[in-house]
Structures are given as structure tokens and as C-alpha cells.
Amino acid sequence: MATASMQPELKGVVIISLPPPDHPNEGKTVCAAFTVRGGGGGSVQQQQRQQLPQQQQQIPNPNPRRPFLSRRRARLRKATAILFVSAVALAIWHWTPYSGFDSRPNEDDDDSKVGVYTLYPKYGNNYHGPVEDKPALKLGAFVDRDTTRNNVPPATSTSSSTAFTIQGNVYPDGLYYVSMLIGNPPKAYHLDVDTGSDLTWIQCDAPCRSCAKGPHALYKPKKSQLVSCMEPMCVSVQAGDGYECTSTSEQCDYEIEYADHGSSMGVLARDNIRVLLTNGSIVRTNFVFGCAYDQQGSLAVSPAVTDGVLGLSSSQVSLPSQLASQGLTKNVIGHCIAGDERDERDERGGGYMFFGNDLVPVWGMTWVPMLGKPAMKLYYVGNANMKLGNRPLVADDLKNKLGGVVFDSGSSFTYLTQTAYSAFVSAVKENLFGGGLVQDLSDTTLPLCWRARHPIRSIADVKPFFKPLTLDFGGNPWLIKTKQFDIPPEGYLVISSQSNVCLGILNGSEVNNGATNIIGDISLQGHLIVYDNAKNQIGWAHADCHKPPNKIKAFPFFV
Q1: So which residues are the catalytic ones?
Q2: pTM for the whole structure
């Protein structure tokens, strides 16, 4: 009996727990526990044996006839099996992606900084009115006030990233907004996400001259938080040479006019934003934004679902540029907007967005250079030939008349120049001739809507009547496929509240002097779009935008 009590016994258990459905950010948990009792006489083992109750020490050997060597081999096999199961479980946990694209390998995963926050739709789900009744186009530009001659310090770069999930859809919700907590103590503000705007601004009680009634109380700045007109950051919000600044005590004024004829006026302020990272740490940093006390046009309409705009252009005053200049991220922006059509999981809309290059896929991306840098702050990529199906909209020698292309997440719909729009609509109508779809002039959701013999429930019902639109940016002649951006029918059609199908590509003859094609959210659906300001290039790839990159293991947010 004494010999049996001295024999080592290895017991172990491996527990794999999945995250609760309402908290996917908690991730998977793998626990492995092993206990050794008896055996070769280590001091801890001796102490454990002494702590066993007397009756447990006298338990007889259940198989007294088994040779000692056989029992030892059995225990070895048992220990090996437990260790093997543990290794497999840990490997599965480590290598199973959260979902989405394979991202760039991180050289230091333990120090990877990824903060996460959430986007929501700007407009309520009950909105079904005409597109003209809501601002579907941004492209903000600073009004000529003045400029100083200081330069903004060059941005530094790190391997960190921030990332967040997106909620909402193109129609009927419209644009998207991010919920951010700003100030000390932090307060929540909802901001429209807009790659076509430079400055992030919040409606402000300075006092407010004209503000929409938003979801939160107006931001109240302190005098010490106002940015001086002599600070370098003030350069980015001035558009001319007439502004005079004679004292460091003078505030930095700005005024922005948007393509939908709305405007915002205010002063620059500086306050805290705290970023919760996926490695568990919190970084608190200052950033400069607009304290907007005078909104006009569409921005003054109440009630408003947002408190301001999140500027994501390549300007030095944009939030990504500020984070990059502080060494928190590289100046790279990516977003992936899911389609409005419900998928096999009964999901629609949503997606994800990130700052930094850690989540950019290693392969599968098509890249084109940004043009006009550094003067051009919008994401402009030059001219592209256009085809509807296999039919070019214009001849190759007339491609330059189609206009250049800008990618803009601040526009709900896509806008083409007069030449491109006329050719596109003509081709669409020719394809629809005799197909059973009739234009419905009573449906004012969008300028062109068609009805069928039966109510249209989804784009799939009418997809055979429409062909994909392709933007061809050329490429090396030895490549099999040139650099193309493909827009399927889901990328330019919407189903109205009257069960008609409407064209989500609009006439942009009055946008940016009518010389630019604006690729808005409707045509960005189903694509991962990356704006790499560090390398001055824009890339894209088809993606399931319901599945974030596999490096996003948790979804905290700005706090």
C-alpha cells in the first residue's frame, strides 16, 4: 500500500471557452491545468502528499497485478496525450482568424496597438424620402480667410493601428457616423465619417449662433483650449492670404463650405481623446478639432442625428494625420462597407474601418497612385475609361473627357461628370429596352426609378437587366488584367420604399466644377478601400465586409 501511494499520478484538463454572443471582443480562452501527485519526492510534492486526507492515502491500487513498468508507460501515454491536446488547442486558438482578410504580419504582436470604436447610420431607419431632402454629398472646402507661413512638423510612423466596426447602410440610412468620447471627463459625440473633409468639427457652445439640435449637448470649450492663430495647425484651415494674425492670444477661425451648399464656421480647439487598445492599454492624446458655432444649410436642420463631421482626408489637420504625427499610427486609412442587400446570414450594411497599415492585406490588392499630392487633399486618382458590361461608354480617344475620379466615403451616392453620366444613362436605358421595366416618374426617391409588373423586393429580382460598371485605370501592358474597379449592379442600384429600382449614380455636373467623378458609399460597398497617405496610393479588393480582419480580436472603442 505504501508503494502505491508513492507512485506519481499525472492529471490534467484543457478547457476552451468561447466568447459570449453579446461580447465577442472577449475572445476565446484556453486554460490548461495539470496536477502531479506522489512520485519522485520534490519538496512541493512531499507537502501535497502530507496534506492529503488519511483515507485518500490508503486507497488500494485498482489493478494490483499490473507491472510497474506498464503503469509507468500508461502514465507516460496519458501525459503525452494531454500535452498533445493542449498544443492542438493552443494552435487552433492562435491560428484561427477572427474573420476576413489575412493581414500583414506584425513584427511584434504583443505590442500591437489596436483601438476600436463603432460607426452608426446618420439617418433614422424611418427615412424614405427623396435623396434631395438629405445631404448625400460632402466634399468640404475651407473658405478663403487667410494663411500663416508656418509648417506642420513631419509625421512619424509606427506599426500601430486603430480599428473599429461600422453599422448602417447606404439607403435609407445614408451616411455613417462614429461615436467618440472627447474631453475630460469624456463625453460622447456622433460624427459623420468623411474622407472628403479635412477638419473634424463638433457643434459648440461658444456660444452657438446657429446649431442643429443633435443627439448630445453642445461641446463647451474653455478659453485655454482654443488654438492660437499663430500655431502651425492653423495653416491647414486657411485657404487664402488675407487673414491677419498679430498675437498669440488671437483664436484660429475657420469656415467650411460643402458641396451640398451647407457650411460650418467656428474656431479651432484642442482637447483629449483616450484610445483603448486591444492589448489592454489606454493612450490619452490631444487632438485639434473645430468648435463649430455657426451651421448653415443642411447642417442646421433639426433634429440632427450627428454632432459634427469626422474629417479623414490627407490634410495635416485630419484625425488620421494627427495620430500619425504623434507616432500612434501610420497615415493609412481603410474601410470596408457591407452591401445593403441581406446576405445568407440575414445581415445588411455595416462593415469596418481602420487607421494604420497593420490590417492591410499582403496580397490581392489593386493599387493606383494618388495624384496632385501634396496640394490635393482629396483622394484623387485621375482619369479612368468606363465600360458598362463590355461596352465602352466613350471611345478611347475621348477618355479624358470623362473626368478624373475621387473616392469619397462622405457621399452616399456616386456622381459622374455630365459626359460620363449621359453616356452611362443612355447605355442603361438601351439595355432595359423591352425588358419589362418602366420608368416611374411618380417615385422621387432618386432622379431615375423603374417599376416592374410586380413589386421589386431586392436587387436580385432585377439584376439580370443591369450590367456591371467598370472603371479601367490602365496598367502595364504585360499584365493579363489592367487596374480595374468593378461596380456590380448592387453598387449603383437601390430599392425604394415604393418597391421600385432606382439608379444610385447621379449627375455630378455641379460637383467640383463638373470635372470630377465622385465614387460614393453605394459603389464602395463590398470593397476594402485603403488610402495609403504614407505611399500616396489607393488600393482596393473585393471583400466580405461583414468579416473584419483576423487581427481584430476585440472591439473596444474610444473612451
Answers
A1: 194, 408
A2: 0.72
